[in-house]
Design a protein that fits this description.
Two copies of one chain form a homodimer. Chain A is an alpha/beta fold and 324 residues long. Chain A has two domains: 3-97 and 290-322, 3-Layer(aba) Sandwich (Rossmann fold), CATH 3.40.50; 99-281, Rossmann fold. The first copy, chain A, is 29% helix and 17% strand. In chain A, helix 1 (13-19) packs parallel to helix 10 and helix 4 (99-114) packs across helix 6.
Chain lengths: 324, 324
C-alpha cells in the first residue's frame, strides 16, 4: 500500500521527482476535482501545507482520519490550529528552508537603516546632522540576535565574517552557538539590550516569545540602535513599538513581519507606524513570497517527508507545548 | 632646524601627539593670524591639506618656496592643480584611509538596491512584481569591482566573506589581488560586464579612468544589474548614465560621488538623475565628511608625513603622469 501524501499546493517538478523512487501516492489539491479532493483527504497519511490562507486545516482535520504527519512549507507554525489537531499527529516545520534569503534581507534592512538610505537626502549637512539619516558605523559593532536558530545563525555569520561584529545571542537555554561570542538565556535579554548597536529579531512566535519585546525592552536600547525583525511581528508589541519609535527618533526600526489580527497578518498595521521616518517596512517577502525561494522550500519539505517514508526521524519536529 | 609642517586645517589631538617626538614646527592655518599665515607658508617644507575648497593651492604655491612635500588628507588627488605644482615637489595621497567605511557604504547601497529598500512598497504583489523593488539575490552572485585598491579590496572581502560572491576585479595591469577570483586589465572591461550581477566602482579619477563607464559599458550590463559608485563621479559619463537608466529600469544605480563642473562637485547633478526611481544617491558622505572617519584619516596622513621626517619612503606617492 503506497503512503498517501496530500499537498495543498502544486509541487515544483524537482520536488515531484524526489518522490518517484518511493511507494507513495501524491495528490496535489489544485489538480483535483471536488470528489477526488474529498477522497484524497480521507486517505491522506501525510499532509503538506502552508496551512495559512490556502487551506483551512481546522475545518478539514475531521475529514482526514488516516492523518499521521503534517509537514508545513513555512518555517513558522504559529498559525496552526493546535487545539484541534489530534495529539497522535506529528507536526514538522520547514525551519531552515528560508534562513539564507531571510538573513540576507535582515542585513539589507540593517545596512539601509544604518546609512539612512530609506530616505534620500542629498544635502551633506542635512544628511549628517539629521537623526533619521546620519550614518552609523557597522564594522566591529555589537550585534545582538534574538533567536539562534538557522536564520539567527546566518545573520550572525554574515555579521562576523562580513563586518567583524561582536555577536551576542539570546536563546531559551543560553547554550553556546557557532558564530556567537556570547549567548544568554531569554531572561537576561534586558541586561544585554543596552550593549547592542544592532538588534536582529529572528524568533519564532510561540507562547514564550509573544510580546517579548515591549516598552521596557525598547526603552533599554542604546542611543542610535538599529533594530530589525525578520521573525514574527507579534514578538514585538505593536503599540509599545509605535509609542517608543515616535518618541525616540534615534532608534531605527525595520521589519518584514507584521502583526496578526483575527488570524491574518495586516499590512500596513493598525498603528500609523509606517508613517514614522525611523521606520522601514517590507511586505513579508524575505522568504516564501519569492518564487525561487518557495520552490527550494517545497523541495526541502518533500525531503523531510521522505525521511518519514523511509522510517527515519524527520527534522524540525514541533513541540506543541511551545504553542498551547 | 625643525621641519616646518603647515596644515590647512586643525589636526585632532591624537595627530598632534604623534608629532611630539620629532623635530618639527607645526602650523595649523586656522589658528594663525594673517601675518603668521604668510610667514608659515613661506617656510613650509610639508603642506598637509584637503587642497579642495578650504585652501587654494594654485594661488598659494608661489608663496611656498621651501615646499618639498604635499600630503593630502583625501584619498583621491584628482582635484590638485598639477600643472602649477613644481616637479621637485613630491605628492602623497591618503589612499586607504577611508577604505573600510567607504566599502561599508558601498555594500549598504548594494543591499538597499538589491532589496528595493530605497522605495517603501507595502503591497507584496506590487513589491515583487515591480522592476524597481523586486528583490535580487545577493548570496553567491557575481561581483565585479572596478579598481582593486584598498576600497575595492575591502568591497571584495565583504562580498566574499559575508555573501560568498564570485569576485571579478578590473585593474590597470590585470594583476591578481587577494579576495578576487579573477582579475582583468581595464581593456577587458566590456567583456566581463555582462557577467556581473553587481558592479562596484572604486576607481580614482585620473586620465585613464575618466569617462571609463559610458553608454556602451552601461548597455552591456546584465538584466537586473546593481551598480554602485564610491570612486569618483566622472568615472561614469553623466549624460550616458541618465539616458541608459531612464530606458533600462531593470538596472539600479547608487552613487555617493558626483560630477565635477568648474572644479566643484555638484549635488544634485545637472541631469535629472535623482528623479529616476532606479537611482539612489548620498551626498558624498561615505568617507571624510564624517568626523570620526576624517579624524582617523588625518592621523594616517600625519603618520605618512612622519615617514618622510624619519627619512623613510612615505606611502601612496602620486605619479603625476597619471593625471597630466
Amino acid at each position: 500500500m503506497p503512503t498517501v501524501i496530500v499537498s495543498t499546493i502544486e509541487l515544483p517538478e524537482r520536488a515531484r521527482e524526489l518522490l518517484r523512487g518511493y511507494d507513495v501516492a501524491l495528490y496535489e489539491l489544485p489538480r483535483l476535482g471536488k470528489e477526488e479532493w474529498t477522497s484524497a483527504l480521507s486517505r491522506a497519511e501525510v499532509l503538506m501545507c502552508w496551512c495559512g490562507r490556502e487551506f483551512d486545516l481546522a475545518s478539514s482535520i475531521n475529514s482526514m482520519p488516516s492523518l499521521r504527519v503534517i509537514q508545513t512549507f513555512s518555517a513558522g507554525v504559529d498559525h496552526l490550529p493546535f487545539p484541534v489537531i489530534p495529539s497522535n499527529i506529528e507536526i514538522y516545520s520547514n525551519a531552515g528552508a528560508y534562513s539564507v534569503p531571510v538573513a540576507e534581507h535582515a542585513w539589507a534592512m540593517i545596512l539601509t537603516l544604518a546609512k539612512g538610505l530609506h530616505r534620500q537626502v542629498l544635502n551633506a549637512r542635512e544628511y549628517l546632522g539629521n537623526e533619521i539619516t546620519s550614518p552609523r558605523r557597522v564594522i566591529e559593532s555589537t550585534l545582538l540576535v534574538l533567536g539562534t536558530g538557522s536564520i539567527g545563525l546566518e545573520i550572525a555569520r554574515i555579521g562576523k565574517e562580513g563586518f567583524r561584529t561582536h555577536n551576542i545571542g539570546i536563546n531559551r537555554s543560553g547554550r553556546p552557538v557557532e558564530y556567537f561570542d556570547e549567548v544568554y538565556p531569554t531572561n537576561q535579554l534586558l541586561d544585554v539590550l543596552p550593549r547592542a548597536d544592532i538588534v536582529a529579531i529572528a524568533l519564532p512566535l510561540n507562547k514564550y516569545t509573544k510580546g517579548l519585546v515591549g516598552e521596557r525592552e525598547l526603552r533599554a536600547l542604546k542611543h542610535g540602535a538599529i533594530v530589525v525583525n525578520v521573525g514574527r511581528g507579534d514578538v514585538v508589541k505593536e503599540e509599545d513599538l509605535y509609542e517608543v519609535l515616535k518618541e525616540r527618533l534615534d532608534i531605527r526600526f525595520g521589519t518584514d513581519v507584521w502583526w496578526i489580527y483575527d488570524g491574518h497578518e495586516e499590512i500596513p498595521p493598525r498603528t500609523p507606524l509606517t508613517a514614522l521616518p525611523n521606520f522601514l517596512g517590507t511586505p513579508h517577502i524575505a522568504g516564501g513570497a519569492q518564487r525561487d525561494i518557495a520552490e527550494y522550500a517545497m523541495v526541502r519539505a518533500v525531503e523531510n517527508v521522505i525521511m518519514y517514508i523511509r522510517g527515519e526521524t524527520p527534522m524540525n519536529r514541533v513541540d506543541r507545548n511551545d504553542y498551547v
